[in-house]
Amino acid sequence: MSQTMDPNNMPFLSEASVSVEIETEDMTLNIGPQHPSTHGVLRLVAKVNGEKISSVEPVLGYMHRGYEKLAEVRTYPQVTTLVNRIDWVSGFANEIPFIAGAEKLMEIEVPERAQYIRLILTEMARISSHFVFNGAFPLEIGALTPIFLAMEDRERVLDLLESVTGGRFHPNFNRIGGVKPVAGAGPTTKKDIQDLPAGFYHDTKVAMEKVLKAVDTFEDLIGGNEVFQARTKKVGVLTKEVAEEYGVSGPILRASGVEFDLRKQSDYLPYDKFDFEIPIGENGDCFDRWSVRTSEMRESAKIILQAIEDMPSGPIQAKVPKVIKVPKGQTYVRAENPKGEMGYYIISEGGLGPYRLKIRTASFSNISILPIMLEGALLPDLIAIMGSLDFVLGDVDR
Amino acid sequence: MSFSSELLIKVLVVLATAPVMALGLTLLEVKGSAWMQRRPGPLHVGLRGFIFPLATAAKYFQKETIIPKDVDEPVFKWAPAWVIAAVVGLFTIIPLSPTLIVRDLELGVFFLLAISSISTIGVLTAGWSSANKFSLMGGLRAAGQLIAYELPLILSVVGVVIQAETMSTVGIVEKQIEFGFPFVIAGQGIAFIIFMIAATAEMMRTPFDMPIGESELTMGFMTEYSGIRFLIFYISEYINLFVMCAIASTLFLGGYHIPLLPTEWVNFYGPLVLIGKTFTLAFLLIAVRWSFPRFREDQLQTLAWKVLIPLSLLNIMVTAIMKVVF
C-alpha cells in the first residue's frame, strides 16, 4: 500500500472523487388495477429505483366491453345508448360524432334549432367533465377541498342536462336527424311538441354565471396555490413534437402549444357562429394542462350564453324514414370531445345497423405517451402526470 | 400520598384525558373541514354531527382485524403501540398550571424531543413488517421525513431554552409571565413558525403527508392495518396533534397564563386557557390541511435542509447574542 506521491504533481482535492454507488435491483411496483389514482382499472407496471421510476408499462383491457363489436348487432338509433357509456364523464358529447356520421351517410340536413341544442348540451358536457378534472386532479396531488366545491358546481350543470334530456350521465338524447322531444312538461297535441323545458333560458343563464364564478374561484384556490404550482410547474413536460407524433389530442395537445381544436377546424356543429377563443399553453407541463382546461370552461360558458341568446326557432327533427337504413358507404366523423379528439369510422352495407364501427377515443391515444413521460420521473410526479392527462378508463378500453 | 397511588392517579388521568382530547380534535377537524368544503353531512347528521367521532371509534372497534399472511407478525402487531406510547408519554411534561403537571422535569424540553422521536420506530417497523411495497415506501418516506424535521424542531426550541435559561416547561412559562410577553412576541417569532412547520411534518399532516399519501401510496405504512390497530394509529395522530399544539402554546404562547388574570386562580383557569390555546393552534393546522396539496418528497427535504435548519441556526445565534448583550 506504499504509494509515493510526487509533491509537484498532487491532484487537486476538488478533482478527487469516490464512487460508492451500490448497484441495486429495481423494484417492480404494481400500480393498479385497483389504486385510488388510476381513474378506474388502469394497471401500471413500474420499475422503481427508490422513488425514481426507470420504466413504466401500462396494461390495458380491464374495462374492455366490446362496444365496437356490440354496435354491429344494434340498429343505428340503438348505438347511442352504447356510446354514451364510453366516456361516462361527458356522455352527451360521445353521441354527437356518431349521429353526425350516420347523418352524413344518409345526407340529412339537421334543422338549425336541433344543432343549437346539441351544441349547448355538448358544451355543458365539456364543462361538467372539466369540473370533475378540477376536483380530481388536486385530490390526487393531495388537496382534498376542491373536489367538493367542483362537484357542487357541476351539479348545477348536470341538473340542466337532466332537465332537457332526462339523464345526468347517459342522456341518449340524439336522434338521427335531430334531437328527442323533451320528456316531461308534455306536448299538448302531437304536433306541438316542446323541445326545451320551461325556464331553460333563465336557468342556463344563472348556471353559467355560477360556472364563470366557479372558474374564478378555482383559478384562485388551485392555480394560485404555491404548493400546487410547485407540484405541477415543469413537471411532466410534453413537447410539441412528441405530442404530435403520438397522436395526442385535446387540451393536452393545446397545452403543449399546438393550436388544434376541431371546433374551429371541423363543421360537425355550427361553432363558426360563435365568438370564442382556444386557450393555448406554453410549456406543456402539468400546470398548463390544468390551466388550459380551466380556461376552456370559461370559453364553453361563453359559447352557451351566446347560443341561448340567438337560439333559432323551428323544428328539432328533420324528415327521416320510419325505419332508418343507412345507404352503403363509409365515413369518418371526428369531434372535439372534452378529453380530446373522438372519431367514429362507420362502414355501412345498407343495413339497419353499422357493418363495422371503429371508435377512435381520445384517452386511448393520450395515455400512449405515459411510458415516455414517466421515464425518470419521481413516484409523486407519476400521480401528478396521470392526473393531468385526465383520462377515463371507459374511454381507453371501450 | 404514597408514590404508587399518586402514579396510579396520574396515569389514569392521562389515559382518560388523551382520548377525550383526540375526540375533541377529531370533531374540530371534521366540522372544520365540512365547513370549509360546504359538506352538509358532518354538520347535520347524528345530533348535528356531534356523535360522529364516537361513531367512528365504535366502527373500528367492531371491525375485523385482518393480518395478512406474509407479515412479520409480532413486529406488525406491536408497531401501533410504539406510536401511541410515544405520543401519550409526551403528556408528562405539559403543564396545565404550575402544579397541575404529571412531572415537572428539569430536562422537560429534552424529554419532549427524545420521546417524540420514538414514534419513528413504530412507523418504520409498521412499514417494514407489512410485506407490502406501498407500506415499505411509506415507512421509508416517514423515516426520512421524521429525521429531517426533528432537527428544525429541536433547533427552534433551543432558542426558547436560551431565552428562558431553563429546560423545565413550567420554568419556561413562568419566565414568560415574568417577562410580560409570550416568547412568540418577545424574540422567538421565527422559531415559533419553524416549530409549527416542523411539527406539522412530524405529525405527517398535509402538506407533509407523503408517508400516508392516500392518492399515491394508498395510506402508506397504514395500508395493511385494520380494525383496532388502525384506530390506534388514527387516535395517536390526533393525540399527537393535541400534544404538539399544547407544547407550542406552552413554549411560545405563554402556556396556561393569560395576562391580567390573577395568578392565584391559575389552577382553575390554567387548564382551560391551555386547552383553548391548543385548540386555536390546532384549528390553524386543520385549515392548512384542507387548503393545501402535498409537497413532493424532494421538495420536503429541500425545505428542511436548505431553509428551516439554516434559519433556526440563525435564530439561535441571534438569540444568544441578544442574551449576552442584554
From TrEMBL, chain A:
Annotated source species: Candidatus Actinomarina minuta
InterPro entries assigned to the protein according to its UniProt record, in alphabetical order: NADH_Q_OxRdtase_suD (IPR001135), NADH_UbQ_OxRdtase_49kDa_CS (IPR014029), NDH1_su_D/H (IPR022885), NiFe-Hase_large (IPR029014)
GO molecular function annotations of the record: NAD binding; NADH dehydrogenase (quinone) (non-electrogenic) activity; quinone binding
Keyword terms, alphabetized: Cell membrane, Membrane, NAD, Quinone, Translocase, Transport, Ubiquinone
Enzyme nomenclature, EC number: 7.1.1.-
Protein name, entry field: NADH-quinone oxidoreductase subunit D
Lineage: Bacteria, Bacillati, Actinomycetota, Actinomycetes, Candidatus Actinomarinidae
Major subcellular site: membrane
Its biological purpose: NDH-1 shuttles electrons from NADH, via FMN and iron-sulfur (Fe-S) centers, to quinones in the respiratory chain. The immediate electron acceptor for the enzyme in this species is believed to be a menaquinone. Couples the redox reaction to proton translocation (for every two electrons transferred, four hydrogen ions are translocated across the cytoplasmic membrane), and thus conserves the redox energy in a proton gradient.
